[in-house]
TrEMBL record:
InterPro entries, alphabetized: Lon_prtase_N, Lon_prtase_N_sf, PUA-like_sf
Stored SUPFAM superfamilies: PUA domain-like (SSF88697)
Pfam families: LON_substr_bdg (PF02190)
Protein name: ATP-dependent protease
Organism ancestry: Bacteria, Bacillati, Actinomycetota, Actinomycetes, Kitasatosporales
UniProt superkingdom: Bacteria
SMART domains: LON
Entry's Gene Ontology molecular function annotations: peptidase activity
PROSITE patterns in UniProt: LON_N
Domain Lon N-terminal intervals: 3-224
Keyword line: Hydrolase, Protease
Length: 246
């Protein structure tokens, strides 16, 4: 299987194919990555790989630590990820295509990227100004009964949306049409549900579309039942900003 080497962007969240990823770039290692990507001609994809952090920090400490004020901040491309960065990341991630990279006057960047294809992390190189990784594509088979499962997931997702809107005392926008292609459905639902990061990662690395859809159907039914019996939901989205810290 063909491998590729791409810049590596670890995050505390999961990126799915087809989903948009806004980024606010301020750490020097990722500024260097964006400067390198800007060297790619505009008519060619500016690709990097996004992997989910298993053990580590999305943003490296940049000031003396607490409770030890004498602690030296970590520097370098692997800061926050230990001596063996490969062990700090989940192995299945997603290639991202940066459609927009805009440098601000202070040297930080505003980036808008889109997930394209799944990829498997083989090795990590920390010898340069930013992490790079050797990756191989992770093909996705439809699996058995993917079409029928997608229909069931869409019905369950609409019910989940209604329950969620009611629990939050919000109106539900019904004008938006949902896709019907099984793979797109599986990724959209995985990204739209209120799930923890390990569950999202499990869905990303499902062996095929049908397996992901079966898992989502169980999750949707369970979550809808929970919401139905709760008078309200915590404002979880209030703790989430519109962009990642990096």
């Amino acid at each position: 299987m063909t491998t590729a080497r791409l810049p590596l962007f670890p995050l505390n969240s999961v990126l799915f194919p087809g989903l948009v990823l806004p980024l606010n770039i301020f750490e020097e290692r990722y500024r260097a990555m964006m400067r390198e990507l800007l060297k790619t001609p505009e008519d060619e994809p500016r690709r990097f790989a996004v992997v989910t952090i298993r053990d580590g920090h999305e943003v490296a400490p940049s000031a003396p630590g607490i409770p030890d004020p004498t602690a030296v901040p970590e520097r370098g491309p692997a800061a926050g990820f230990g001596t063996d960065p490969l062990r700090s990341f989940h192995k299945v991630g997603c290639v991202a295509d940066a459609a927009t990279i805009r440098e601000r006057t202070d040297g930080t960047f505003e980036v808008l990227a889109t997930g394209t294809t799944r990829t498997r992390l083989l090795s990590v190189d920390a010898s340069g100004p930013f992490l790079t990784a050797e990756l191989e594509p992770v093909p996705e088979a439809p699996g058995e009964e993917a079409g029928a499962l997608a229909e069931g997931v869409l019905r369950a997702f609409r019910q989940y949306q209604k329950r969620l809107a009611g629990a939050r005392e919000r109106s539900l926008a019904t004008g938006a049409e949902l896709p019907d292609e099984p793979g797109v459905v599986s990724y959209l639902v995985a990204a739209a549900m209120m799930l923890d990061t390990p569950t999202r990662q499990r869905l990303l690395q499902a062996p095929d579309t049908a397996s992901r859809l079966r898992d989502e159907l169980k999750l949707l039914r369970a979550e809808t039942a929970i919401i139905r019996n709760l008078p309200s939901l915590p404002a979880a989205d209030l703790t989430r900003g519109p962009t990642h810290l990096n």
